[in-house]
Protein 1
Amino acid sequence: MYEHLETAENRDSLKRVVVDPVSRVEGHGKVTLLLDGDNKVQQARLHIVEFRGFERFIQGRPYWELPVLVQRLCGICPVSHHLAAAKAIDQLVGIDPENLPVSADKLRRLLHFGQVLQSHALHFFHLSSPDLLFGFESDISKRSVIAVLAEYPDIGVQGVKLRKYGQEVIRMVSGKRVHGTGAIAGGMNKSLTKAERDYLLEDIDQMIAWAEGSVALIKKVHCSNLPFYDEFATLRTNYLGLTKPDGALELYHGGIRAKNEHGETIIDHIDYCKYNDYIHEEVRSWSYMKFPYLLSLGQEKGWYRVGPLARVNNCDYIDTPLAEAARVEFKAHSGEAMVHSTLAFHWTRLIEALHCAESIKQLLGDPDIMGSDLVAQGEKRYEGVGVIEAPRGTLFHHYQVDENDIVTKANLIVSTTSNNMAMNESVRQVAAEYLSGRELTEPLLNNLEVAIRAYDPCLSCATHAVGKMPLQLELVDAEGKLIDKLIKHSDGQIERDNA
Amino acid sequence: MSKTITIDGKTIPFEEGQTIMDAAMAAGVYIPHLCHQPEFTPHGSCKLCTVKVNGRNCSACTYPAISGQEVLNDTEELINDRKKITQMLFVEGNHFCPSCEKTGNCQLQAVAYHLNMLDNHFPLFYPERDVDASHPDVMIDHNRCIFCTLCVRASHEKDGKDVFAISGRGIHKHLIVNAESGLLKDTDMAATDQAAHICPTGAILIKRTGYQVPIGQRIYDHEQIDQVSLAASGSRPVSALPPSMAVGTENIKNGK
């Protein structure tokens, strides 16, 4: 592995190269490289420099605001935050997942399939397909979805329309394409009308066909570039995610399963309300993002990956036929128990998109989504945990409230946080293997971004207030000259440096 | 022959004892307002209903209609003033519409939309204000109070309780409750009180009911506040929206 590249020893004497911002990802991050005189990489880091602080400012608010408030963390997967928070506040009104009314459960699943479909389509077609179709070091003018639309109009248009369809599912269930309502404590605030259901049914077969076509496309891209695709930024890691009780792929509700690099089970069917007994988070001074790890394996070896690759690796099967066939084909290509290729995130992402499209069709044929029994209520509780498989991976929401229904404590572990260690390791691997010792050019640096993009990171929702983060504030004049600098150290001390 | 005034040149009849607001509403003329509700004694505090009466600025909700008055309402100058007043109401408190449970049912938000208010214009105050969630069924979020006194009047005039009052002056003005502890739980407030349901913003709320009305069925989802307000006053028929049509069949495809 490449841990030795996390912190270089003689940092002041090294040349600094910065990729800032990392483009075509959600949120703001940057990569720094420290190079010696021979252009050898001595240090490589992915920094998440945004600061959000949601865990802090939802304290003091009433719990029923949570699903609507915390979904503002993100404009790409707000539904995942909305539903994770809703699952947590279900418990505050005494409703466990098995007691949620059937209609509400199915509507939430429909909403979430729409979410994962649109997010996966966005990520693959809009953000990543330029790299995969034109090459990692292609001319910068080609590295956008506009170029894809120009040269591969069919692929581009299908991507845009797949995403639109997912958003229409979200709009029908939650009232808006982005940041709607829908889930409330103990259920849902509306079901689908027949007109809304019929509208969604019109295009679903086309969506399934396009999703199937996209799996064929990524398979072709991946397999025609073997072994490069199996080696680039690849890490042999643990994997974590939810599965159904029978081991099937699950996105909305299930137990936690983790497997090691050989496919051996580390934990399985764990009640996610007890996540704290299995997962801890480590803080490092140079990033706003925490580093989670499996407690039983420790900080060094316990880090893991989440998201499409982890889910498809971890599950025993997928319960929709086309996606299951695609999964079997995917697993067969590597011949190993677990697929470790980082670029295989894209392949598994599209298998899941196909699964979502198939599942949406199943649910649209189910009369329960037009049912009227939508809300249940039980005995008040003071603590709730909601966990869901967001597009980018396992998402944890954990809240405590007081006797007046006010939030007193919150902890969020978002998908990207779980992939933090892996993304850094992938960046170091790419820096060491592909960049080190070469004259750095802009196209070459795109390799780093390609590695980060594979994880589909959502950097903006992954950063929280730890309270001890060092901060640096710089005042620069119009010519770019540094006028003043304030530095807050991790011990809270503030220093001015206006030299 | 009945008595009349003119509003923007249009002749409007009125009865003795009516305010300009009463006469206007009865005739189907909307004058923007927040602190006024026909069933309570007019207060004239929000100043949103400011009109020009014979060249002089007056609050339409408190100013009596007198024969021959020439009233200006829908003028660029007055609309601009009202927009500024609304902007000031927003910056003075902490109004975060995106996550507020009153969104879509909020008169402050609806008036802002009606006046085409597109930004704060003034710098935000970010005042530090509390949430009083001590009462089992009713919550006060002081961040959103605009001191319209509707809760004060409702509690006094309809509920016969005097749970609420306004204390302090100027920028220190704040809503207080009738309890030594200062907490709503120690008053005789009940969720069935009219004062618990009268707030035009999201400052006084019934607990655990937020977001239960889906998008598409909220008060201002399909009509602006002028239409809703006139319908409520009886001068315009209530439009019949089938409650089951959450998104509305006619709007399903065009994305409204």
Protein 2
Amino acid sequence: MPMALEQLSSQLREARLKEVDAVILRHRDRPGALLAILTEIQSSFGYLPEATFKPVAQALGIPVSQIWGVATFYTLFNTRPRGRHMVRLCENAPCHVQGAASVLEAIQRELGIAPGEDTQDGEWGLELVSCLGICGVAPALMIDDQVYGNVRPEAVAAILASHR
Amino acid sequence: MNNIALTIDGRSIKAAPGTTVLEAAASLGINIPTLCYLKDVNEIGSCRICMVEVKGARTLQAACVTPVVEGMEVATNTPRALRARRVNLELILSDHPRECLTCIRNQSCELQALAEAMGLREARYEGKMSRHPADWSTPSLARNPAKCVLCRRCVAVCQKVQGVHAIQTMERGFDTVVAPAFHLPLGEVACVLCGQCSLVCPTGAIHERDQVDEVWSALADPERHVVVQTAPATRVSIGEEFGMEPGSVVTGQLVAALRRLGFDRVFDTDFTADLTIMEEGHELIRRIKEGGALPLFTSCSPGWIKFVEHFYPKLLPNLSTCKSPQQMFGALAKTYYAEKMGIPPEKVYVVSIMPCTAKKFEAARPEMNAAGSRDVDAVLTTRELGRMLREAGIDFSSLPEEDYDHPLGISTGAAAIFGATGGVMEAALRTAYEVITGRPLESLNIEAVRGLDGIKEVSVALDGLTLKAAVAHGLGNARRLVELVVQGEVDYHFIEVMCCPGGCIGGGGQSIPTDADIRQRRMDAIYTVDERMALRKSHENPAVQALYEEFLGEPLGHRSHELLHTRYQPRSLYPGRRESR
């Protein structure tokens, strides 16, 4: 797990927040800038540190409460540091019907963590998410940017191993 | 554009384009049940309680967001619509704690009333219940998200009407919760505690911090001399707590009721409202003559004060240094009055009856302690007083009319109108005109500052000076006006701002429901109170005159400065608890 912004020295923190200013400048005049900015902040920090909300709010003229609403609405955004690899398993109806629950059991067995948790070594995080948009191949999951369909519980170990 | 012809339950009606099925039905006397709907503020069709059948439509439609269409045939009470409403209500109840008996909104809850009206006899769905902790972080408001039905009315009023954005819908799906940024407690974000959220909440998810038991304890303590003050706007709303018509003027019954509760003296915030006019009027004149910060903003409304502290700290020098009438009263009760009566100040316990939740925060400000302890010990909103009187079994509507005690109960009509937007301005102008010109005003009614327009302006010729003034109510309007000031586009001398729509008659602590019609009726009642008063100008209040002679000396004098004036502090706009760690 990379160091959380809050744990850095104040000097390093300042430097990293300057990067955020650059991200904001790059997007601020485009429509829908908020999602683009949050996406870039997340890819740079691994999550959305609270200290980055104020400069975003000021630059875009959007209240912090609203940005927090957006950040917590989308399961792809993390509002706290998460594992290096994120496993996102769909929990919506079609995946449920097709056996997502047993896939979840298999993942939990392999990683030893429950949804919302991360492994102690910081390598893995597990999250239940809403529809991944591929109900035709339910049950579906994502690991980082890679999407998997028709996932069987017995295939889980191999899928995870390919990301180690 | 031509009106649109349609039928609802077989009855023909013509409605203007853009009218919703809900509104068209209401004009026929058909009341379709609603829950999330709040006219003009929250029309989002999220609760699905107002489902109706529209001929030719595949699915049921939400009446609150369905516009009328030519030839439309609406049926509001088909078995299919009724069943859908009940099922939807049952689904809402499946994640609602059924603690009605012990809920602060027992019998004033819209969810409860809906269940009753819809004849619900069972709630069949059992499942996971939301678990979000309650939030008791402010002295004014408490949040209990477990009781939230996610109607979003509070969010809409906070954002669209007040422009404060303290709360927002967070997370998604089953985890959805209305909360401040970063899920922080309300007391740690830029919330002004106006309580408009508590006024529109259909359930007990956001409510006033109840202080009734503190007041009962004080009343039962023989060592305490308990005095009470009543805000101008409460005398035209407390009747609603007992089923009386909105806008009933019940000043005399209010006084009688408070005496029945056992208060040692029943006084009136109107007395210190008159005093505020004397102090603030002289402050305005001094600032104009000596070149102080202008425009001068009124400081009676604690939600407005906190708004400036969070959002416009650069304007703090423009706020009048006058304490609000509530706080002036407390300061005088524990000094002037205590001295006059020979009672040790520490034995005097001051309760105020307010239309306002922010007044609880104001009373708890550490700087508000003129006599060495809190100026005001406990603040009860109109709703809390209603509960207290019901608990005491006092039959409010049959009480005789009684008069306030002297001397802190003597007031003028100018003070009464503090309760409505524009009232402080009108009261100030009545006095300023006569004090500056030495001539009596032709008409005491200054119509330009009355009514429910968001921003009002007036200019008055005062021997050699044209005084330009403006009035705003509701923080959204206030922000628009303040932006004009900040950008230098207007040059007013004096601006009255009331935090809540309509002024205090629409305060966040007022009786539920409070809507546009009820605000108007309370406002009309306020002006009736004014018309009925023998004295209608603050400077003519004999008790205020005596106060200056006996105790204060002169407006803005040394003692006034000590007791009646205060200071403000910038507060952060961005929550920064974890950031600063």
